[in-house]
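Thread title: Can someone regenerate the structure for this chain?

I was given the following input by a collaborator and told the matching structure tokens would be attached. They weren't. Posting the sequence so someone can regenerate them.
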Amino acid sequence: MGFIPIKTYLSASLAHVDKGALEEQGIQCVVENENIVGTNGLMQGAYGNIQLSVWEPDVAKAKTLLSEMKFVPLEDSEDEDDVYRCPNCKSTNFSEYAPYMWTIICPIFFPLLFIRSKVCHDCDHKWK
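Best answer:
Regenerated them for you:
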């Protein structure tokens, strides 16, 4: 009697999500090969991917619970206060930028050049 692999994963984070769900139901389980595959991805095939293993008497119950689990994706917030927008076109498609070349060359002589700004990718508007 020992641990039996019941499911394989390409990502350790997905294995830990299922492990947490099973442990919440009182099933003891282990994520195997997580470190070997995380350290060297080429070893994934040799070790049989990342595996979720449970005790032999709990295999049927664990497989049933995993097949019944449903994940609902998170919805975007529709609250206007939570979303930062471009002041010109109200788009949320923007990013921050800084003159990186100057930050490497002379940060002491020109400190005002290092103020981060934002640029909208829809209307090319720049603001601080």
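Residues 119 and 126 are 4 Å apart (CA to CA).
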